[in-house]
Design brief:
Layout (H helix, E strand, L loop, with lengths): L1 H6 L3 H15 L2 H5 L1 H6 L4 H29 L8 H41 L3 H16 L4 H27 L8 H9 L26 H23 L6 H27 L6 E2 L4 E2 L3 H9 L4 H27 L9 H17 L5 H29 L2
Antiparallel strand pairs: 1-2
C-alpha cells in the first residue's frame, strides 16, 4: 500500500504547479507578443512549428530537472540555487549575470509601459514610464502581498484573452494562416525583428556564423531565457511534488501548458500578420499582439492594453523587490532606509532611460545572450540529476 501511495499522482497539484509557472513566466514581453514573434513567429509556418517543438523539449528538460532537484534539495534560501548548480566559480558567474539581467529587464518594463500606452491611446511615452514608476514604487514600499494577488489574476485574464482571440482569428473569414508568409517577408525587409544570437557580440566576430541562425537555435533559447531569473521560484515549485514521479509529470505538463499559451499568442499574430505593421512608419508595432487585437476588436482593444500594463506593473514591482532583496536581504515585511533609497533611485533611472529605448530592440539584444546562460544552467541541472552531484 505504501508503494502505491508514493506512486499516486495528484493531478490538482500538477496543474497548480504548471499554473504557478505560467503566472510567473508570462511577463510584459510575452503579453506584448514581441518575444514570441521574434523567437517563434518570424520563421514562417514550418519554421515556427520546428521552433515550438524545440522549445517544448527544452522546457520539459529543465522543468523536470528543477522540480526533481527542488523536491530533493535541503537548501535554506531559494537564491542559493545558482551556487548549488554551478559551484563556487560558475555559480558566482550565474549570480552576477542574473543581477545584470534583472536590472536590464527592469528597464525593459519601462519601455514596454511607455509603448503600450502610446500605441493604444497616443499618450506621450514619458507619461507611461512615469505612471508605471509611480505606482510600482508606491506598492513596493508597502509590500508585495497585494501585488502577488494582482499578478495571479492578471495572468489568468491574460491567458483567457489569448484563448478567446485565437478562437476569433480561426473563425474570422478576414484572418488566414497565409498571413504568416507576410511576417516572413517583413523579416527579410527589416520591418519585423527576428531573434539572432549569432548577430550579437562576440558571435558577430566570426564570419558566416550569423547565417547559421535558425528556428532550432532560437526555439531552444527562448525557454532557457525564462530559467535565468526564475530559477529560485521553479526550484521551490519542486517541493510541491509528493514523489519523483509527480515531479517528472509536473515538469512535462508545465512545458506543454506553457507552450499551449505560446501557440495561442502565435495564432493570433500569424493569422493577422499584415496588421502587425504600422504603415505610417513602415515598422512593426512595438506591441504586435495588441495591434492584432485592435483589428479583431477595435472598440475593446483598450481592455487588453490595460491588462498588458497591469502585467508590466506587477513584473516591475517584483523586480524592484528582488533587486532590493539581493542587496539588502532579510526584510520580507518591509524595506530598510537603504532599500527605500535604492528602489527610489532605480525607479527614477527607469523613468528617464527605460522609456527611451525601443521595446523590440531591447528584447532582440538581451534575450538571446540570456538564453545561452539559461542553457548552461539547464545542463548543470541535468548533470545534478543524472550524476547526483
Amino acid at each position: 500500500m505504501g508503494n502505491i501511495d508514493r506512486n499516486k499522482l495528484s493531478w490538482t497539484n500538477i496543474f497548480m504547479t504548471a499554473g504557478a509557472f505560467i503566472s510567473y513566466t508570462v511577463g510584459s514581453g510575452f503579453a506584448s507578443g514581441n518575444e514570441v514573434l521574434q523567437f517563434y513567429g518570424s520563421w514562417g509556418t514550418e519554421g515556427t512549428a520546428l521552433a515550438i517543438f524545440c522549445g517544448v523539449i527544452t522546457a520539459a528538460i529543465y522543468c523536470v530537472s528543477f522540480y526533481l532537484l527542488g523536491r530533493q534539495s535541503t537548501l535554506v534560501k531559494p537564491t542559493e540555487v545558482y551556487l548549488f548548480l554551478g559551484g563556487r566559480t560558475l555559480g558566482w558567474i550565474y549570480q552576477i549575470f542574473v543581477y545584470v539581467f534583472i536590472l536590464s529587464c527592469f528597464m525593459l518594463m519601462f519601455s514596454g509601459a511607455a509603448n503600450v500606452l502610446y500605441q493604444e491611446f497616443g499618450v506621450a511615452k514619458w507619461l507611461g514610464a512615469v505612471l508605471l514608476g509611480s505606482v510600482s514604487l508606491l506598492i513596493v514600499l508597502k509590500g508585495l502581498k497585494t501585488v502577488e494577488k494582482v499578478l495571479g489574476w492578471a495572468g489568468i485574464i491574460l491567458l483567457g484573452y489569448t484563448l478567446v482571440f485565437a478562437t476569433v482569428s480561426v473563425l474570422n473569414p478576414q484572418c488566414s494562416i497565409g498571413e504568416a508568409s507576410f511576417i516572413k517577408e517583413a523579416v527579410a525587409t527589416g520591418q519585423i525583428w527576428q531573434a539572432n544570437l549569432f548577430a550579437l557580440f562576440p558571435f558577430s566576430l566570426f564570419p558566416g556564423l550569423t547565417a547559421m541562425n535558425g528556428p532550432v537555435v532560437e526555439g531552444t533559447l527562448y525557454p532557457a531565457v525564462c530559467l535565468v531569473s526564475g530559477s529560485p521560484f521553479y526550484f521551490t515549485l519542486g517541493k510541491r511534488a509528493a514523489s519523483n514521479k509527480e515531479a517528472i509529470v509536473s515538469g512535462i505538463v508545465t512545458a506543454v501548458s506553457f507552450f499551449t499559451c505560446v501557440c495561442f499568442s502565435l495564432l493570433i499574430m500569424l493569422m493577422n500578420g499584415s496588421k502587425l505593421i504600422d504603415f505610417g512608419t513602415g515598422k512593426m508595432y512595438e506591441i504586435p499582439l495588441l495591434a492584432a487585437v485592435d483589428f479583431l476588436w477595435p472598440a475593446g482593444s483598450w481592455t487588453y492594453s490595460l491588462i498588458i500594463f497591469i502585467g508590466i506593473f506587477t513584473t516591475t514591482t517584483g523586480y524592484l523587490w528582488v533587486i532590493n532583496d539581493l542587496l539588502f536581504p532579510g526584510h520580507d515585511e518591509g524595506l530598510t532606509a537603504k532599500g527605500r533609497l535604492l528602489v527610489l533611485i532605480l525607479t527614477i533611472i527607469g523613468i528617464f532611460f527605460g522609456g527611451l529605448i525601443p521595446f523590440s530592440v531591447l528584447i532582440n539584444l538581451m534575450f538571446p545572450i540570456c538564453g545561452i546562460v539559461g542553457l548552461m544552467m539547464t545542463i548543470s541541472a541535468v548533470g545534478k540529476v543524472l550524476f547526483k552531484i
